[in-house]
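User: Can you predict the 3D structure for this chain?
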Amino acid sequence: MSGLSQPQRAAVEAAEAEIARIITALCAEHDLLVESVEARADTIEIVAFNVREIGE
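Assistant: Here is the predicted structure, written as structure tokens:
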């Protein structure tokens, strides 16, 4: 960051920290969504099994 003034460097560092915070939050949200999709898939498998059992 040569050529930048101290306030400019501070602004860049603050922006980098905010980007890192946003990425961390998005990763956590992604993990929650994956867990939710997996739970729904498990539920669908159980329902499908029950439907097959009832149909037999």
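The chain has one domain: 1-55. Helices lie at 6-55.
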